[in-house]
Amino acid sequence: MQTQTPDILPEYHFLMIAPGLGAEWLFDTARAYFDRFRPTIIPDLAFVQLAPPDRRIAITTIARRDVAPTLGVQLGLLRPNALYDPIVRDTAAEVREMLDQRAATNQPFGVPLALPTPDTSSLLPSIPTPMVPTQSGEGWVTVTPTPSPTQTQPASEPTQPGATIPSVQPTPGSLIGG
């Protein structure tokens, strides 16, 4: 199991409005936060069980002081490795102010995000730009050379004896088959 810290983005981020709070607590207070971080809105903590157990998850809850501890205990029983991010405020205006500040500072969990260390095992090998030697043997080809007149054949002459070059004809109908 992976340990959770509030400075690393999880694979699954849920946002839950505590029971007893109306829809205005979501639509009026969390609009900027939702637009910035796009968490999955869940009505109940039971939905966190649908996330794979080996993935990092975080649950941000908007709750009042009397409900937040109970939600934390319920989450601990369901997913002990989940990050619990309670937003405990008494009024919708206080919640809006806190969530707007998080959205403005790019801090979904109230702390600055750490820079992730790159996972080099999943990186594809880089393909370097090929270097084509020029006549002088140095540098890069930046312009496609034009062939000399002795190297080209006129378009009217066939490339093999006895072969004919077909003339270009317009298509008999639609290219998309309709």
What does this structure look like?
- The chain is an alpha/beta fold.
- Helices cover 20% and strands 12% of the residues.
- The mean pLDDT is 75.
- The protein has a four-stranded parallel sheet with strand order 2-1-3-4, with helices on one face.
- 17% of the residues are buried.
- The longest helix is centred in the middle third of the chain and has 13 residues, at 92-104.
- It has helices at residues 24-27, 31-37, 68-78, 92-104, and strands spanning 12-17, 40-42, 57-63, 83-88.
Percent strand equals 5-15%
Q: Judging from the principal axes of the Cα atoms, what is the shape?
A: elongated
Mean pLDDT across all residues, rounded?
Answer: 75
- Number of DSSP-assigned strands: 4
Number of helices: 4
SSE series: EHHEEHEH
Quaternary status: single chain
Give the CA-CA distance, first to last residue: 56 Å
Uncertain regions spanning at least 5 consecutive residues: none
> What percentage of residues falls in helices of 4 or more residues?
10-25%
Backbone CA Rg: 31 Å
Largest sheet: 4 strands, parallel
Structural class: alpha/beta
Spatial strand sequence of the major β-sheet: 2-1-3-4
